[in-house]
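Design job #97: recover the sequence.
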């Protein structure tokens, strides 16, 4: 299993959540510009560093999910029986 892809995506979700970048947080920030739509770009600049991590997460998501579906069951089955 490509553990880098799987654990990178787990880390990215954890990191983004722990550092306040969630859908609801970003949506709340966007809503502040409801009456000033011409200034909404400031929000994207403010959160740009977080977006770059999310881009990697999205690029890896399909592969990460496929790896987990195909191999995680076997891994946990072996681990449950004390085999390594």
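Job complete. Output follows.
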């Amino acid at each position: 299993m490509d553990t880098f892809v799987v654990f990178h995506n787990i880390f990215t979700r954890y990191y983004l959540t722990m550092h306040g970048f969630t859908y609801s947080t970003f949506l709340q920030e966007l809503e502040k510009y409801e009456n000033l739509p011409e200034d909404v770009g400031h929000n994207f600049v403010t959160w740009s560093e977080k977006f770059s991590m999310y881009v990697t997460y999205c690029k890896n998501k399909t592969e990460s999910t496929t790896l987990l579906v195909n191999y995680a069951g076997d891994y946990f089955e072996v681990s449950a029986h004390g085999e390594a």
